[in-house]
Amino acid sequence: MSDTTKAKSSRARKATLWVLLVGVAIGIVFWGGFNTAMEATNTEQFCISCHEMEVNVYEEYTDTIHYTNRTGVRATCPDCHVPKDWVHKVVRKVQATRELYHHVKGDIDTPAKFEAERFRLAQNVWSQMKKTDSRECRNCHEFDAMDYTKQENRSSQGHQDAEDAGLTCIDCHKGIAHKLPMQYDPEQDAPGESVFYTRLDAPHADTETPGAQE
């Protein structure tokens, strides 16, 4: 091999090495920025930075046991609405970009607008939680970790029956952190037989419907 060929080969190897090093550096910077952005948008402060979230769902959440309780353990917005594992978290973040569009449009920027959409929004969340077996709930609540002997009789029996029947948290605990829509009818929400996981149209505003709240 001639000296010229050797020199070209050496330069090619150095160029390849530099390309790899620069690529790794860019990848690290990109990954760090991406992960930082993910974490920054995964806080309660970010969630309620939108006016419609702060004056509607956040205010009602502060009156629930998930906000204040005897143990001092607080479940924040991302604890209940954002998956912990990375893959599902990214999927949820991508899905959430649609919410930016509706935020800019001002679709639910007043209490009246929000109430008009509450039934549809609640069904979306309930349906998703049912599909995931209440995945985010089970970050804190698992049948296997429950000591039924330390629960009140009603709760103990209910949890054991739910476990035996293969039910999930949202089957019995709708309205635990937010007000239920006025169209919610408990008679249509029997555990394991609920109609609310399938999209229902909200009744006409002039029609009286069963309602409930926390």
Structure description:
- This protein is mostly helical.
- The protein has a domain at 41-188.
- Helices cover 54% and strands 0% of the residues.
- It starts with a helix and ends in a 42-residue tail after the last helix.
- The model is unreliable at 203-214 (pLDDT under 50).
Strand-helix topology:
Elements: H1 3-40, H2 44-47, H3 51-61, H4 77-81, H5 86-105, H6 111-131, H7 153-165, H8 169-172
Nutshell version of this structure?
Helices cover 54% and strands 0% of the residues. With 214 residues, it is mainly alpha-helical.
Structure characteristics:
mainly alpha; 214 residues; elongated; disordered C terminus
What's the order of the H and E elements?
A: HHHHHHHH
Instruction: Please tally the β strands and state the result.
Output: 0
**Biggest pleated-sheet summary:** none
The outline comes out as: elongated
End-to-end gap: 83 Å
